[in-house]
Amino acid sequence: MSALHDDLGPDEGRDETGEQRADRMWGELIQEVRVAQTGVQILFGFLLTVVFTPRYPGLDEADRVIYLVTVVLGASATGALIGPVALHRLVSGRRVKTDAVRWAARLTLVGLILLFATMTSALLLVLRVATRDAFVPWVVGAVALWYALCWLVLPLWARHRYSSRRPGTPRRNGPRQDTP
Asked: CA 134 to CA 115: how far, in whole Å?
């Protein structure tokens, strides 16, 4: 079994070569990156304009620090999520697709972590400026928990549930049969 299969999970139920699997995984990864790129680019573009608004000079020191951290996080997330495209362009045709998929998947994961931090930080800044209430950290914490549930806990649960079958056990392709 190749390193790609080890890193990217089992390939049960598919009749494909390692190269075909790398091609499929690359296509799937790029589709995922497109979704995340759109969100991070819109958020980052918005963040870049804040400094030019009339209200920016009136922000207190803590809000300016939060803003600067948020911009740096947004720039970093943008770089990580655009990285797979540059990687593909620079290594295309060099017979390293299996490794490129692995590297791009790691860049994408880093980009999603940075996007999580950017969105949480941006929410903190907006709510602090808009309300100045003591409940802001609680709201931001609750939203960050929601992001973690959607982006980490649920995918890890599904990964564990559907990849922890015993070898030779068929996949379930529908609702569980043992539930009412």
From this structure: 25
